[in-house]
């Protein structure tokens, strides 16, 4: 029998709150998508006319995952914590998780666009460091905080990455029960740096050119422009898929 990973995204009160927020945010999402994605690398942006359905590397125990580890459908996101489009999609993904956590396995990989987002790398390091110290629950807690407070820590261009850590991320770490000194050390751990690079390498292999980029069963999809469109994609995958998307998946501390 399938077992389900219970965490902060499964809370009914938060799902209700995000339903309200989502109505507002989806308008922002449509505007962002219509205007431009956050382009990956040094140039380029994803558009419907240039979309190529590429394949992402298989999920492994080193990936951050939540939901049903035995699901036959996986939703993988490559994201950048400083990316405004990723921030706009965040409550949408949370609503999807609230509705599909028993039937879909959700995963997140780092794809920091360092050429245009000066704090993207330390954002990824913060999330990975939280996971290194406290496992999946701390990872997802930090993931949430980085996106929920994105407009606060990402908008002051006068700050250095180190100042963003000291003025914002250290407080986030403390708020989720982590030692600040251990957190600061973990942010620069070789395993954290390597995990981020591995994610980026996989994204490059999948020819990612914007964030967020979503994959259903490891196959890239055009970014849905509404919650209902996203639900339609997942429903179609659930209706047509008969076998698990990948083997060896499950919750991970990514250590």
Q: What is the strand and helix layout of this fold?
A:
Layout: H1 12-35, E1 38-39, E2 64-67, E3 73-79, H2 84-100, E4 104-110, H3 120-148, H4 150-153, H5 161-175, H6 180-187, H7 190-205, E5 210-211, E6 213-216, E7 219-221, H8 227-240
Parallel strand pairs: 3-4
Antiparallel strand pairs: 1-5, 2-4, 3-6, 6-7
CATH class call: Alpha Beta
End-to-end Cα distance = 27 Å
Corresponding CATH superfamily: Glutaredoxin
Count of distinct strands: 7
- Let me know the largest β-sheet: 5 strands, mixed
Order of helices and strands: HEEEHEHHHHHEEEH
Shape: globular
In round numbers, the mean pLDDT is 84
Question: Which properties best describe this structure?
Answer:
5-stranded mixed sheet; alpha+beta; Glutaredoxin; 255 residues; disordered N terminus; globular
Task: Give an overview in words.
- The chain has helices spanning 12-35, 84-100, 120-148, 150-153, 161-175, 180-187, 190-205, 227-240, and strands spanning 38-39, 64-67, 73-79, 104-110, 210-211, 213-216, 219-221.
- The chain has a single domain, classed as Glutaredoxin (3-Layer(aba) Sandwich), CATH 3.40.30.
- The chain has eight helices and seven strands.
- α1 crosses α2 (84-100).
- The chain has a five-stranded mixed β-sheet with strand order 2-4-3-6-7, sandwiched between helices.
- It has 255 residues and is α+β, with helices and mostly antiparallel strands.
